[in-house]
# Entry
Amino acid sequence: MEIELAIPEDRIGVLIGKEGEIKERIENETGCKLRIDSKTGVVRIQCEDPISFMRVQDVIKAIAHGFNPEVAMKLLQDDMMVLEIIDLSTYVSPKHLERIKGRIIGKEGKMRKFIEDVLNVNVSVYGKTVAIIGAAESVGIAREAIEMLVEGAQHSTVQRFLERKRRELKMRGLDWF
# Structure
């Protein structure tokens, strides 16, 4: 299997890593081959294993959307981890994009950190997108919280929503015992 993905110019170095260490690590952990054109940002992925093929694409997309490689690599280690990318330009006009990104991040990064801590996810606000890495159910809740912020909900309302969802997740987790 083979596919080409384009990544932003400023993320090429992050994907390659110091002396090629990140690229090499991805290749070693997945058995896939990566060819990166550092001028165009085109990444060619060649892979035999379909599962690894899908995971490598997610790791590259995660790095392209602002995650550091260590966080992106979680997608390789844990079967339960998923990547969700929200394109903010489908919700707001370009002139409101910076304001909306600011609402999602919050003052001194507090809102983003709150979402990450409550749901045990990682959130990256980069360019016109918000990307989330975590367990599928938690990522879905984080997406809902981010959509609430985009639609103008107050931070306190979103925080209460997240705390309620966290309690529900914990209660459901107890059902297994």
